[in-house]
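Researcher: Let's do a round of design. I'm pasting the structure tokens now; please hold your answer until I've finished.
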């Protein structure tokens, strides 16, 4: 994805110790690039859901669309 920063939102700006330490960035997606083998046959602007298998990080472990963890992450070793 290609994106531009639309806004920056400071979190806990009213706490001197945290001011400027935590930010949320709002992005505007300009363009999406997709591997050709993931496109729906006959529809060049659509992703075929049966061909796409995203990797999702949840609670420091990696999951796919099927139930169960795919593999752990080095981040999972952090207490």
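Researcher: That's everything. Go ahead.
Model: Designed sequence:
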């Amino acid at each position: 994805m290609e994106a531009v920063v639309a806004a920056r939102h400071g979190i806990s700006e009213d706490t001197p110790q945290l001011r400027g330490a935590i930010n949320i960035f709002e992005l505007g997606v300009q363009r999406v690039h997709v591997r050709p083998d993931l496109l729906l046959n006959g529809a060049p602007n659509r992703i075929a859901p049966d061909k796409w298998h995203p990797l999702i990080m949840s609670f420091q472990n990696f999951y796919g669309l099927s139930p169960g963890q795919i593999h752990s992450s080095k981040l999972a070793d952090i207490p």
